[in-house]
């Protein structure tokens, strides 16, 4: 994906011969990625995003139910249902791109100014997901106030009047730009946007004004380079070193699913706290075995929770193994 993709949503339909199992698994994977944006700061359309997350969560529960209680192999899944799910797959992918744009570092002020366009995209996606017109996505009131403040500050700049610092800080807080380094990213993005072809005079003037606003914020409001930047880098290095120590003590057998004895790919944890590969434990449930294979305990709930932390360790382990083998191969040449 190009770094210049902004408010465009490249997505293609799944192939016509896709199996229902593959389609449901893919929908669940994308839904999980969509819900991961809940913890991020939205520079615009916070209300629309919150409403969308609610519906994605409800759909995710339905997909999990379909996967656990899927039809027997001897029965075919209705073609119309597969087509509808394929259409939903495209919508999910477009929604993921939209959420990436709404939370993208460096594009926060740009996305706020384009909040009307963002709301239109949310409206279209919402209609396609829910097949209803009862809910209308629209710019948040706080977005409108922040945009009005930005244009008012532009007017003050033109008349060489110093804007109220509290009003500028309210705008920065709304879009999540709170440090000098964030301003640098915003300026870099806006400059790149100016270089994009087919920009008319008005668009270039607006982008230039946005750059001027952020430059003012960086030099006057936020002042100086972030004091905590070096400390943050040190903490990140310590985290990487800690992860390396954990990985170094692992053996391949530690990464095998207790059921299939194969390397786990999609790790999930049961209510007992034990981790399994999703496909293996799902087969157990489908066969009527609603127990934890390692403890034998009858499960109250068959909800599978992704074990993100262990999954990251597994992926990091194999990345280091590949890197180690690559270096070893180069030395032997």
UniProtKB/TrEMBL annotation:
<keyword id="KW-0808">Transferase</keyword>
<dbReference type="GO" id="GO:0016567">
    <property type="term" value="P:protein ubiquitination"/>
</dbReference>
<comment type="pathway">
    <text>Protein modification; protein ubiquitination.</text>
</comment>
<dbReference type="InterPro" id="IPR003613">
    <property type="entry name" value="Ubox_domain"/>
</dbReference>
<dbReference type="InterPro" id="IPR045210">
    <property type="entry name" value="RING-Ubox_PUB"/>
</dbReference>
<keyword id="KW-0833">Ubl conjugation pathway</keyword>
<dbReference type="Pfam" id="PF04564">
    <property type="entry name" value="U-box"/>
</dbReference>
<protein>
    <submittedName>
        <fullName>(rape) hypothetical protein</fullName>
    </submittedName>
</protein>
<feature type="domain" description="U-box">
    <location>
        <begin position="250"/>
        <end position="324"/>
    </location>
</feature>
<dbReference type="InterPro" id="IPR013083">
    <property type="entry name" value="Znf_RING/FYVE/PHD"/>
</dbReference>
<dbReference type="GO" id="GO:0004842">
    <property type="term" value="F:ubiquitin-protein transferase activity"/>
</dbReference>
